[in-house]
Design a protein that fits this description.
The complex is a heterodimer of chains A (about 250) and B (about 250). Chain A is α/β, with parallel strands linked by helices. Chain A has eight helices and nine strands. In chain A, the strands form two sheets. Chain A has a six-stranded mixed β-sheet with strand order 5-6-7-3-8-9, with helices on both faces. In chain A, strands 2-1-4 form a three-stranded antiparallel β-sheet. Chain A starts with a strand and ends with a helix. Chain B is globular. In chain B, about 35% of the residues are buried. Classes of the chains: A alpha/beta (about 250), B mainly alpha (about 250).
């Protein structure tokens, strides 16, 4: 099966105290007296390949590197070390942190066109889909309002409707099922299952481990930036729960 | 730049234009009203306080002030553009080049509106119309390139060092007041320090591209074109290379 993402020895690190480092004074003083840098590794030497049709769940505790890994896959973060190969010409829909990149001052409709363009769709294609997106998001009355006036539920609904209605080939989802009411969540799950059956590749980040076990055919457990385990969902989840239950 | 970023660039530039006057009563008309008021006020003030004995001072002033305003508009907008694009750069992949480019595109369009207003005002102010005015669409090219290049460089520097913004403002102000935009180059005696500074001041050559056809009724010289196009091309190349080289590090500074 075709490889969609391939990561080889990928590391992503953040400098601690980065706010202090954003001044010219700090940069200039570093020329004369090197600063002691403390670095936090969000991902450390991660190697993984995700194939077409895989439904991967990413689990791990807070700060394990799950969201960073999704950002590397979407090219939002360029790792400092390692090699990232992405299959070109695939429509990738990234739903990171409860939404897409929506501009707060623009309307829901305008944001659909902008985010759609970034997912590789032309304005004509979005025009064709926009009514369905609005209907699914249940935002008929508010679609021409600036998204800064939306509640977090409305924001998440629109992002989910857009990312899934355009029928992407790869869908990356970071905790998106936390938004919307119970009924909308059910609608989302049905749509997700339909897309997965249609053969798209999905990568989920969620703390709802039971949901991931039900939906995914592969699970990756991340801990402190490392891949702790990669395998069948039930086995990985059992090991994950066992590790932390023992600690607790 | 990839296809998706290019599509986004056009759509977002259009949205920015709409957004600018969305909540105003005059809406799109502000594109003409604002430069007309600005220039009208300037011509009134400078005609009243003009002590330089420059004939037709308003025509002289408009010559280089309009492209300078465009340059200033692009640089100040582009400087913060990458940082203010964090709403998207942290969520979806887009080429960071897009944000300074959008500022440049929007400001270029605003320049066209301003320049239309200038031409309308000149109908009433300018005594003699000559064939040299037809060079003006080409005169803006070096200015546009310079604005884009400096805008890109400032955008990258500001992302890493937030102190850059006041420094950019200071440098812009110094460049403006030390260049022959408000006064004629022959205002100073030939051997004075000021005359020497003006001779080597790059803005002298940029200003000539507009002042010569509009005020002096002459063509810009080959030296004017050579220096301005050379500097502008170099600055654009440096700006693009800088964005390309640093784009992987932006995320960590947003």
């Amino acid at each position: 099966m075709a490889i969609i993402f391939k990561l080889e020895n990928v590391s992503v690190s953040f400098d601690k105290h980065a706010i202090v480092q954003r001044s010219l004074k700090h940069a200039l003083s570093g020329w004369f007296r090197p600063h002691n840098r403390t670095t936090f590794y969000a991902l450390s030497k991660v190697s993984v390949a995700i194939h077409a049709g895989d439904h991967v769940g990413l689990i791990g505790r807070n700060g394990a590197g799950k969201s960073t890994l999704l950002r590397v896959l979407t090219k939002v973060i360029t790792p400092q070390e390692g090699l990232v190969s992405l299959c070109p010409d695939r429509h990738i829909a990234p739903l990171l942190e409860l939404g897409l990149g929506f501009h707060p001052d623009l309307s829901g409709r305008e944001n659909c066109f902008l985010a759609g363009a970034l997912m590789g769709y032309s304005a004509t294609e979005i025009h064709r889909k926009i009514d369905g997106i609005i209907r699914f998001a249940e935002l008929e009355e508010f679609i021409d309002e600036p998204v800064k006036n939306y509640s977090s539920g409305m924001f998440g609904r629109l992002a989910f409707a857009l990312a899934t209605d355009i029928e992407p080939e790869v869908l990356l989802v970071d905790e998106v099922f936390g938004v919307g009411d119970e009924f909308f969540m059910r609608k989302c799950i049905v749509r997700m299952q339909r897309l997965m059956q249609a053969g798209i590749t999905t990568v989920f980040v969620s703390h709802n481990v039971d949901f991931l076990v039900a939906q995914c055919n592969r699970m990756i457990w991340l801990d402190k930036g490392h891949i702790e385990m990669d395998g069948k969902p039930r086995e990985v989840v059992a090991a994950y729960r066992n590790a932390y239950n023992t600690l607790g | 730049m990839d296809v998706a970023s290019r599509r986004f660039l056009w759509l977002y530039a259009k949205s920015q234009l709409k957004l600018k006057y969305r909540d105003t009563y005059l809406g799109f008309a502000w594109n003409f009203v604002e430069p007309a008021l600005y220039l009208g006020m300037l011509s009134l003030i400078f005609s009243a306080v003009n002590r330089m004995n420059i004939h037709d001072y308003t025509v002289f002033l408009f010559g280089a002030l309009i492209p300078w305003r465009y340059f200033e508009n692009v640089v100040s907008g582009a400087t913060e553009s990458i940082v203010s694009g964090s709403w998207l750069l942290k969520k979806m992949y887009v080429s960071p080049l897009v944000f300074p480019l959008i500022r440049w595109l929007v400001a270029s369009l605003e320049f066209l509106f301003s320049f239309t207003v200038v031409l309308l005002l000149l109908v009433f102010m300018k005594e003699r119309w000559t064939v040299h005015l037809c060079i003006l669409p080409f005169s803006i090219i070096p200015w546009a390139m310079l604005s884009l290049g400096i805008g890109l460089i400032c955008a990258v520097l500001f992302t890493f060092f937030r102190d850059v913004r006041p420094i950019v403002h200071m440098v812009m102000m110094f460049t403006f007041f030390s260049s022959p935009i408000l006064f004629k180059i022959d205002f100073f005696e030939g051997h004075t320090l000021q005359a020497l500074v003006l001779k080597f001041h790059p803005m002298t050559y940029y200003a000539s591209l507009f002042q010569k056809p509009i005020y002096y009724a002459s063509w810009p010289s080959a030296l004017d074109w050579g220096i301005t196009l050379g500097i502008s091309a170099a600055v654009v190349i440096v700006g693009c290379c800088l964005v390309h080289k640093c784009q992987g590090r932006f995320y960590f500074f947003l």
